[in-house]
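Re: [help] complex structure
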Amino acid sequence: MTYLPRLISPFFLFCFFVFATTQANAALEIQVTGGASNRIPVALIPFQSPSDRPSPALTDIIGQDLLRSGQIKLVETEGGQQPYEPAQIDYRVWQGKGAEAIVVGQVVRISASRFEIRFRLMDASKQTQLAGLSMNVGVDQWRAAAHKIADVIYETLTGEPGVFNSRIAYVNKRGKQFELKVADADGQNPQTVVRSNEPLISPAFSPDGGRLAYVSFEDKKPVVYVQSLRDGSRRAVAAFKGSNSAPAWSPDGTRLAVTLTRDHGSQIYLISADGGGLSRLTSGGAIDTEPAWSPDGQWIYFTSDRGGSPQIYRMPATGGDVKRVTFDGAYNVSPAISPDGKLLAYIQREGGRFRLVLQDLANGQTRVLTDTAHDESPSFAPNGRLLLYATLSGGRGILGTVTVDGRTKARLSESGSDAREPVWGP
Amino acid sequence: MKQSLLPLLLIVALSGCETLGLSDKSASIEDRNASGAQPGGPATSASKGSAAATSGVAGSGVETTGLGGSSVAGQPLDAKPLEGPVDASMKGADPRKDPASPLSKRSIFFDYDSYTVRDEYRTVIEAHAAYLMTRRSARAILQGNADSRGSREYNLALGQKRAEAVRKALAVLGVQEEQIEAVSFGEEKPRAVGESEQDFAENRRADIVYGDE
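Output below.
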C-alpha cells in the first residue's frame, strides 16, 4: 500500500496560471495537481489565429488534455519566437527549452461560422514531421477539433489511443432538480439528456456510446431505463416489483446486468437491452449488487455482503462459482474493470475515508490513488490510463480524473452545482 | 416486455421528466500528413459519430409533460372507497390520519448496521397489518432509506434491506404479498441532510406509505 504525495511544483503553478485563468467563463475548471517524472516534454506553441476566434484558444484546450494524461508535460512557450509553420521553427531554441516535440498550427477563418485549422507535430531533434492535420470545422466543433488534435499528439507520442475525444456522463443536482448530462471528456460542453424532479443515478454508456442506461426514481421507486442519445427516446427495461438498479452493459451491448429485488433482497440478474429475457445470476439472503463486466464478457464482478462486510466478488457471467476478490479492509464497493481486464478499481473505506483503490488482479496488490475522503463511482477511460470518479469538495460534488499511477489528478468541477455518478464512455 | 410496457406508458403520461437528444459536433477531418502513413495511423481516422449528424433529430427529443400525477409501481392510483369492515366510530375519518392511532406512525427506525425491526414497533406493525388484512384492495409501499456514507448503489441495497424487514414483519402477520411492495430510496431522498450521527440515524429508516395517499 503506497501513497504518492502530490507534487506542487513551479511547473504546476505555471500551468494553473496559464490554463485556469483562461477558464473563468467555462462551465468546469481543470486543475492538474501533480505529474510523473518521465513525461514527454512538448512545446505547444499558440496557433496563429484571427482575433475573433472562439474562446478559449485551441492550444489551451489541447494543453489541458495533454496535461491530464500525466504522460506529457508542456515546456514554456511565452516570449521568443512563435512559429506557426515548420519552416519558421528555430529548433535550437526549442531543444534548448527541453522540448522533444513541437506543435505548431494556424487557424484561418473561411466563412462567418467556419474555420480551417492546420497543425503539425514535429520531432524537435530529427526536425521531421510526426503528424499533421487539416480540419474544416464549424464554431460549434471548436472544442471537438482541439480534442482531436490532442488525441493525435498523444497517440503519436505515446503509441496509445487517446481519449480526449470521448465523452462522459454524470448527474448534476441543481436545486431540487436532477440533470443527467453528457459532456466532453474534460467535462466541458455539458448537454442535459434527462431532467427530473426525482433522483437519477447509475448512468452507463452502451459499448457503442449510442445509449445510456440509468436509474430514475420518477415513479417513486428505482426503475432502469435505456435511452437513445440520438433522439432522446427511451424505455423502462427493468420496472419489476421492488427496486431496479445498477445497470451494467455486457461488452457486446445486447444485455444488461441489473440488480433487482423482485424475488426479495438485492440480487443480480441479466436482462436483454430491450427488457426481455430475464435470468437470475445470484441467490441467497445477502446483498449482491453493482455488477461490472470483464471486458471479455466472461466474468461479472460485483459487491456483496455475503461475508459479513461489503466486498468485491467475481462470478462467471453465466452465474455460479463465486470467488472473493478483495480482502483488505471492511468496506470495498463499486468495482470497475480496466479495458485490458487486468486492473480492478473500487472504493475502499478506511478510517472513515472513502478512497479510490486500484488492485492488480494478477497478484492482488493494491494502491490508494486518491487523497480525498468521499470518493465514489470510479470508471476507466477507454484506454485504461485514467480513472474518472466523484468526490466532495467544500460540501459539493465534483468530478475528478486520476492517472492509474496516481500521480496526476485533475478536477472537473462545475461551479455552483453538485456533480455525482460519473461514468466514462466511448 | 409485458411487464415493462405498462410502467413505460404510465411514466410517459405521468412523469415530470423530460429527455433530450444530443446534437452531434464531431469535426470533419482530412489527412494533411506530409510524410504519409504513420505507425498507428491516428491522423487518418475519421472522427467518430459523424454519420449521426444527418439523423435529423439532433438537438431535440422526446419531451414528456408532467401532469402532476403520481403512481406506485406502475399501478393506477386506487381511489375506490375502502372495503371490508370499518369500525362505525371511524366513519368519515381515516384512521391512518388519527394521531391517536398507531396507524399514524409510518416510520420504522433501525440501529446502525442492523436490519431487524425493533420490538418497540410491534404495535405499529400490527396495526398496519390489521388495516391491510381487512382491506384487501389497499396497497402499501415500504420505502427503505440509508445514510449518505459510501456507494449510492450499495446504500440502495441497504435501504432495501430495511424495507424488506418491514415487509417480512407484515407478511408474517398475514398480509398478502400483492398488497405490499418493498422499495428503496437509498441515500437519494434523505429526511435529514446533515452529517451528524443524529442525521444518519434519521435516515436509517423505512416508511410505510399507502397507495391512495
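Residues 145 and 189 of chain B are 8 Å apart (CA to CA).
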